[in-house]
Design goal:
Layout lengths: L8 E2 L3 H8 L5 H15 L3 H11 L2 H4 L5 H29 L4 H7 L2 H9 L7 E2 L2 H14 L11 H30 L11 H24 L11 H11 L6 H23 L10 H16 L1 H4 L23 H30 L5 H16 L7 E2 L1 H9 L7 H16 L8 H10 L2 H4 L5 H7 L1 H16 L2 H21 L3 E6 L6 E3 L12 E6 L8 H12 L3 H26 L10 H7 L8 E5 L8 H16 L3 E5 L3 H9 L11 E2 L2 H13 L7 E2 L2
Parallel strand pairs: 6-7, 7-8, 8-9
Antiparallel strand pairs: 1-10, 2-3, 4-5, 4-6
Helix pairs in contact: 5-6, 5-8, 5-17, 5-18, 5-19, 7-16, 7-18, 8-9, 8-15, 9-15, 9-16, 10-11, 10-19, 10-22, 10-23, 12-13, 12-19, 21-22, 22-23
């Protein structure tokens, strides 16, 4: 059943609407601004408590902690994650090109610090494969170790100290960058790393991690390549040295993969049924260490083992700050990746469990975490994909789970660490590879991404190829630039369409997609779905000229007609002055209008509802369009302009070429006004009707 709608009200131009419903006292805004500034600068007990709760979130959630409801889940989740942190921390330390014990340190200090300052209830921080790989590339560039160096020699210890000094310097500088970003309220920068970029980057980085671990899995001692095409250089080196594979380490790797992959698949498929996932990594580490020690595999088959892991806490010391100028460029990329991954994970689980996070506070939390932990020989850290997923699925509720995670790592550091002396490095390499399962599975999202947005699919593909073919940091930069270019291209090629009116309504839609919407006779209603700025002004002008027929030939013919009318007007005036009336002349406008073909456009109405901003180039283009339309006898009207667009247009002098009363609140107000002007003289109280 269809129904007609009738609406009776005054026609509103922007000026009339502002006079009726606008703010009378414009100074109130300035007063409110002064009040807000004074309130922010004020210091009181309430403000201090609010600032404390904002900057130290543990003071907010800990007093509200539900002991009976949450404690058991936090204990189980924290202990489970702590057990996973031990093998992964040592494994990711190898990616960073430092000793495994530093991975244990990085699995302890950041967890405690994030528990105090973080806002993500289900975020687990620590070592992350992608960050470790990026940091390892920096370490290898600055402190390469000769292949023939004996691991037990004093020179090896000196090289190791230099390497962890560089890795800690990267963490320190990354933390300082995050703290500066927090001070400048730059938490929004993470939005420039879109979801396709992050997923493509982590998926491609997983290939780099896998290839870099092949030499450890095969028992080869090869140099580590960095820079462009490093993945292919490493792969070629591994293939060239396959005949020198240590068969014992190859067997260990195959056995570990045969155990880790199926059990991880079980953990994934039966995640909802299992109270806690099977800690297959730590079980594999214990068994492999015991077998290597019992059968002396390190001495019999020349298997590479972890070696000495000192017990106790590391002594605080400054990182190698003299390397800051050399690592600054790489650290920017590491900082962006760390923050983007951390905030993305925090937001995902915050949305899932119905709470909110503060991006700038996350900057503060990870900045403090990296800065302070770097003083205890830790390398860069962030939120981690695998352990965060385990923490949430194991029943964690709050950041208190981090306390139990750190207790597990602390026990290993103080008591159990030296027992991992005989742990084969091939086992840690297998743990590295199998921990990337989620990143490889991101390929499953590609068909859906292609179906939803082909542009986002291209962003994913370009980022992935750039990271794989070139390098991690350079590929990420290319992906970000390409993503921004797609945004620019979308604004440049925004669509311009003609609107028609749905019968018996005040609804206007594109006639291309709604064939039952009809154009208003004599009025061309246009809409542009994008900003008008220097980058797309030529496209906007071309689209408008095509739709309006603003060709140079037509403009010249209209100018000639206008000159002819002016000449006839002067002759008519001369005739009147001589006392003879010319009854054939009424007015220039009437005569010019009569010469226009019936059904030709006499008014152009531009719907600005989708124009989010206009720059000075766009405003000048509007002025040029007004002048050209006036030359062919067509008037321009505007509707649905937001305040910022209207302010720029008026400031640029558009009102010198356009009547201020031709700017309307809605399309229908303008259409009714135009029709009334054509049909009868304007009345004092014109009404909008449908």
């Amino acid at each position: 059943m269809s129904a007609s709608v009738a609406i009776y009200r005054n026609i509103y131009t922007e000026d009339r609407f502002r006079q009726t419903y606008g703010t009378e006292d414009q100074s109130g805004g300035r007063e409110r601004l002064r009040d807000r500034l004074a309130q922010r600068c004020s210091c009181s007990q309430v403000e201090c408590v609010h600032l404390l709760h904002k900057r130290l979130p543990v003071c907010s959630w800990l007093p509200k902690y539900k002991l009976r409801k949450w404690l058991l889940g936090d204990i189980i989740a924290g202990l489970t994650v702590g057990i996973v942190h031990i093998p992964q921390g040592m494994a990711f330390a190898l990616l960073t090109s430092v000793a495994p014990v530093y991975g244990l340190y990085t699995s302890f200090f950041p967890v405690v610090l994030y528990m105090l300052f973080g806002t993500g209830h289900h975020v687990s921080t620590g070592t992350f494969a992608v960050l470790s790989l990026m940091t390892g590339s920096v370490v290898e560039q600055l402190v390469p170790i000769p292949l023939a160096l004996n691991s037990s020699s004093p020179e090896a210890a000196e090289f190791e100290a230099q390497r962890i000094g560089v890795a800690s310097a990267v963490a320190f500088l990354s933390g300082i960058m995050m703290l500066c970003m927090c001070g400048l309220q730059l938490g929004f920068l993470s939005t420039y790393l879109s979801e396709p970029i992050v997923k493509a980057f982590t998926s491609a980085a997983a290939f780099h991690v896998t290839v870099s671990q092949l030499q450890s899995m095969l028992g080869l001692r090869l140099p580590r390549y960095a820079g462009a095409f490093s993945l292919f250089k490493t792969l070629a080196s591994v293939m060239e040295n396959v005949p020198h594979t240590n068969l014992a380490e190859l067997v260990i790797s195959l056995l570990c993969l045969a155990v880790l992959v199926p059990v991880k698949e079980v953990n994934s498929r039966f995640r909802e049924r299992l109270r806690t996932p099977i800690p297959v990594e730590i079980i594999t580490v214990i068994i492999a260490t015991g077998i290597t020690y019992a059968f002396s595999l390190d001495s019999k088959y020349d298997i590479q083992i972890v070696g000495h892991i000192p017990a106790g806490f590391p002594e605080p010391r400054l990182p190698a700050l003299e390397t800051v100028p050399e690592i600054a460029g790489d650290t920017v990329a590491i900082t962006l990746v760390a923050y983007a991954v951390s905030v993305s994970l925090a937001m995902i689980y915050a949305d899932k469990h119905g709470y909110s996070i503060d991006p700038n506070q996350e900057l503060l939390a990870h900045g403090i975490s990296n800065t302070v932990s770097s003083l205890f020989t830790c390398f860069p850290n962030s939120a981690t994909l695998a352990t965060t997923n385990i923490l949430e699925s194991a029943g964690g509720h709050t950041q208190l789970a981090g306390l139990f995670t750190s207790l597990v790592v602390l026990i290993v550091l103080l008591l159990i660490g030296p027992l991992f002396y005989f742990l084969p490095k091939a086992v840690l390499a297998c743990i590295n590879v199998t921990s990337l399962r989620q990143m490889f599975l991101q390929f499953q999202d590609l068909p859906e991404l292609w179906r939803i947005s082909k542009i986002d699919f291209m962003v994913w593909l370009v980022t992935w190829l750039s990271v794989v073919v070139l390098n991690v940091d350079l590929g990420l930069a290319i992906g970000m630039v390409f993503s921004m270019m797609t945004v620019v291209c979308r604004t440049q090629r925004a669509s311009c369409s003609v609107l028609g009116r749905a019968a018996n309504t005040e609804i206007y839609r594109s006639i291309n997609n709604h064939n039952k919407c009809y154009e208003v006779p004599g009025v061309k209603i246009l809409t542009y779905n994008g900003p008008i700025y220097y980058g797309n002004r030529s496209f906007f002008k071309a689209d408008m000229a095509q739709l309006l027929g603003l060709t140079p030939e037509r403009i010249r013919s209209r100018e000639k007609a206008l000159k002819a009318i002016e000449k006839r007007e002067r002759e008519a005036i001369s005739t009147v002055e001589q006392g003879v009336a010319d009854s054939s002349f009424s007015s220039k406008n009437d005569l010019f209008t009569s010469e226009m073909a019936e059904g030709e456009v006499q008014a152009v109405l531009i719907d600005c509802s989708s124009v989010i901003f206009v720059d000075i180039a766009g405003a000048r283009l509007f002025i040029q369009m007004c002048m050209e339309c006036q030359k062919i006898g067509v008037r321009i009207y505007l509707a649905n302009c937001n305040e910022s667009v209207l302010k720029i247009l008026t400031s640029s002098g558009l009102m010198n070429y356009m009547n201020p009363q031709h700017i309307f609140v809605t399309i229908h107000d303008a259409v009714v006004y135009i029709q009334q002007q054509r049909e009868k003289p304007p009345e004092t109280n014109t009404m909008v009707w449908v």
